[in-house]
Structure prediction request, 415 residues.
Amino acid sequence: MKRYSVFALAREALNYHLGWEKAWKSPEPKAQYDAVIVGAGGHGLATAYYLGRNHGITNVAIIEKGWLGGGNTGRNTTIIRSNYLQDPSAAIYEKARSLYETMSQDLNYNVMFSPRGVMMLAQTHHEVRGYQRTAHANALQGVVTEFISPQRVKELCPILNIDGPRYPVLGALWQPRGGTARHDAVAWGYARACSAMGMDIIQQCEVTGVRTEGGVVRGVETTKGHIGCGKLGIVVAGHSGQVAEMAGFRLPIEAVALQALVSEPIKPCMDVVVMANTVHGYMSQSDKGEMVIGGGTDGFNNYTQRGSFHHIEETLRALIETFPIISRLKMLRQWGGIVDMTGDRSPIISRTPLGNCFINCGWGTGGFKAIPGSGWAMADLMARGEPGPLAAAFGMERFREGRFIDESVAAGVAH
Ligand SMILES: Cc1cc2nc3c(=O)[nH]c(=O)nc-3n(C[C@H](O)[C@H](O)[C@H](O)COP(=O)(O)OP(=O)(O)OC[C@H]3O[C@@H](n4cnc5c(N)ncnc54)[C@H](O)[C@@H]3O)c2cc1C
Prediction:
């Protein structure tokens, strides 16, 4: 694979950009792989990448029923932060955030990581206490966050109305190195690096069954035929329940639609990410100038990639009271993704009842930020067959044993 660099750009410019090679290959599947990953979202691709990079396992196929990054990875609002309350969550999200810092260099692909700072507004006294507690927990966990005053909130984001009509801003949990990245680029960067290591990314190929024998997986049935594997990783977000059922086990997961929308592009007016969980809405400005707006999850299980219409009205109502200057903005696009929600709002990175089958899911409304850390931990689990320190607490046996990792404040409505 040719490296992307300023010299390569200059060389190609002189050649009318005719010499760029494809970023990744599109091969036909082989009969057998050492490892098969189902799902070419960010988590599946990152798992494959770290299997190769950290463990030297490169005879890997990543199987995707649509196009890579076309699931939640390409549909999210790209917020990256690690200000979670519980120790296992802070550890994996901070690992991910730190990997984002150098991801463009590591992958030789510009993922446009922008650590512009994320603030979560406290608009009730309950939230003030909650976020102060999180800031103290983060200090102990080595995650840099701070509880800031309403005046500081206004300095950092002048377009914010801190005297809101219903809920004035009482402060905020501020993570200065949180931010955003370009979601497609994260998927494309990992895909290119996986392909360069000799892995096969097989798109437009749906897994329709899992072939097992004596308690282990032998391979998967797909729309392109049977593909054998030594190890299987299931990383399919909102479809986790369906694929787990093919493998013969059940998951404590629900699938619901979560939606987002963007406005027409406007001049730069906001260089931080703001989340207002009490009124429920959050917003940042993309590099193109669009205001990127996150909505709510549907109140019922479903597999639509749209989301209910009334959420648009509720979200915009919340944001207009928070940012009055957007009241006359036109909205350009709205879409949804199918998110995988667990009861404690924490992910599952786990062994399964099948000896050589592993599952990574349950990232719900907030897994984009976790992609590199999750891939790192899942690759470790698949390579060694045992969870490492990052994944140990996230086994699915925790639901049977009552060891919940309660992140309903950090992840219940936020992203
Ligand atoms: C509107 C919205 C906003 C969000 N905002 C944020 C945010 O700001 N910050 C944040 O951190 N997170 C956010 N998230 C959550 C985040 O997008 C997800 O947690 C994350 O992208 C999940 O990645 P994934 O790789 O697990 O899943 P996906 O990207 O969905 O990938 C799973 C893939 O599996 C494939 N698949 C499914 N079934 C099969 C099968 N049978 N055979 C083959 N392939 C199959 C799918 O086609 C899909 O491509 C948001 C999500 C949504 C929907």
Notes: Residues 42 and 142 are 26 Å apart (CA to CA). The chain has a mean pLDDT of 96. Residues 125-141 form the longest helix (17 residues). The two ends are 35 Å apart (CA to CA).
